[in-house]
Amino acid sequence: MLIAAALCPAPPLLARELTGADPVLPELREACREAVDELALAGADVIVVVGVAAEQRTFDPRARLDLSAYAPALGDRAAGGSPVDSPLPLSVGLGARLLDDAGYDGRRRLQSVGAGTPPMACAALGARVAAAAPEVALLVMADGSARRSRRAPGYLDVRAEPFDAEVGRAILAGDMPALLALDDTLAAELLATGRPAWQVLAGATAGRRPSCVVRYSDDPFGVAYLVASLSLG
Amino acid sequence: MSAGGPHPAGRSASHGVLRLGRRAFPPGQPLVMAIVNRTPDSFFQPGATWAEPAAIERVHQAVAEGADVIDVGGIPAAPGAEVDVAEEIRRTAGFIAAVRSSYPDVVISVDTWRHETGRAACESGADLLNDSWGGFDGQLAEVAAEFGAGLVCAHVGRQQPRTRPFRVSYPDVVADVLAQTQALARRALQAGVQPDRIVLDPAHDFGKNTWHSLEVTRRLAELTDTGWPVLVSLSNKDFVGETLDLPPEHRLPGTLAATAVCAWHGARIFRVHQVRETRQVVDMVATIRGDRPPARAVRGLA
């Protein structure tokens, strides 16, 4: 059963090494750190990292992100000493790093969900994930639209702001049915890559209404980043 | 930030820390040395910093633009009016003391071949003896040792101070550079100069025609591969001017191109007139090499 969740975005720049001399968004990293610290303190039997990737699968819990895919010059330093061959996809890998940074050494499960997974399939995955142990905590790595301004990676789409506002409202209100009702086609058009991960979260709550604290909500580079802590109790 | 494993350039990863004055510079951190001539007749912008207020102003500007080292010289490299020891000291020592009082931590170098001038400079606060005439006065190394100062070991072939190359030839100019600079470094060690304060300089244009200076630039990795820190002095020199057929005031782009090549090959100190442009070039090359992170990277990472 799900007892807590943390929501963090998954931009590469969350990895401090990638931004060069300038920390760029220290306040975003700090918000993520606080959310993950609180998640670890919830004392669940397992923390499941959920992130969107090309396909749905689980990964060896020892696997890590290979930053050299983003910055070849970082070379060996970036691999984080991953003891397994296949590196993690970005979203799951950043989640694993957040757990490492929080000093979390309990049980972890690393789960990706496919970018094109329909909402009901996401919800079903969430229900299975929540049943993995008596007490389960989720670290959901998900981003809003990347089309929020003319300088955004996906340029401006005027539909982005109302879409992200609805996501933010639903999360803050614990309105999980509203997350399940998100239009997956629209989300894809808006480059709101986090949509399947939010819907996994919604499925994992099994109809209960979490309470929520938002720690960060902004779009400094035209991508909506949301950091939040959710508890079900 | 330093790369682990073989260097991406495959060159010169073996340098250690370079100590100058109170400062310690790790490998991969290029230093810009700003030329401040206390002369009325140097080849580039002659007399621009002959007056002390103008010279001090140049120091302020150089430090603000990112210079790590101020190199003070009282005699032009080219032949011309005689400058005796007393006059050379008069031009340099008091000025060095003034720079030192304004900048307690900046590295100060004196460009001289004379040990008497080197001693006066060290007593005034200099940290590095830039012996650009390649060990002509052997006692300069002893002065460096006595004061705990650094020493630049330059290659000048068989040139005497303030003479121009006349039909110079080498079976292999780079081999000659390697032999002469390393012999000077050994002599410095024997004199008691601290090993992490010794620098090699192939001395472009000194005892060299343009072909020689181009060859030294092309093969600079052979010098950096020795493990000694390497200084290059390229700024607006004749080999740049002859290569591009340009007078001194138009040699900055050519100078910066040669600077980039030497930086790629692992040179650590760049002696220049134009600090701001050089700082940008050496920082850019250091970052391409993987020795320095970008100032701020967000493109494609949001």
Give an account of the 3D structure:
The complex is a heterodimer of chains A (233) and B (302). Chain A has 233 residues and is of the alpha/beta class. Chain A has helices at residues 26-41, 75-78, 90-101, 119-130, 160-173, 176-180, 184-189, 195-204, and strands at residues 2-8, 46-53, 57-59, 108-114, 136-141, 211-218, 225-231. Chain A has one domain: 3-Layer(aba) Sandwich (Protocatechuate 4,5-dioxygenase, Chain B). Chain A is built from eight helices and seven strands. Chain A has a seven-stranded mixed beta sheet with strand order 3-4-2-5-1-7-6, with helices on both faces. The mean pLDDT of chain A is 95. In chain B, strand 6 (128-131), helix 4 and strand 7 (150-154) form a beta-alpha-beta unit. In chain B, 49% of the residues are buried. The interface between A and B is medium-sized, with 21 and 14 residues.
| Strand percent estimate of chain A | 15-25%
Number of strands of chain B: 10
Gyration radius of chain B, to the nearest Å?
Answer: 18 Å
Shape of chain B: globular
Task: Kindly state the percentage of residues in helix of chain A.
Answer: 25-40%
Order of helices and strands of chain B: EEEHEHEHEHEHEHHEHHEH
**What percentage of amino acids of chain B are in beta strands?**
5-15%
The CATH architecture of chain A is 3-Layer(aba) Sandwich
Mean pLDDT of chain B: 94
Characterize the largest beta sheet of chain A: strand count, sense, and whether it forms a barrel: 7 strands, mixed
Would you state the CATH class of chain A? Alpha Beta
What's the helix count of chain B?
Answer: 10
Total count of helical runs of at least 4 residues of chain A: 8
Structural class of chain B: alpha/beta
User: CATH superfamily of chain A, called what?
Assistant: LigB-like
At CATH's second level, what is the architecture of chain B?
Answer: Alpha-Beta Barrel
Taking the alpha carbons of the first and last residues of chain B, their distance comes to 23 Å
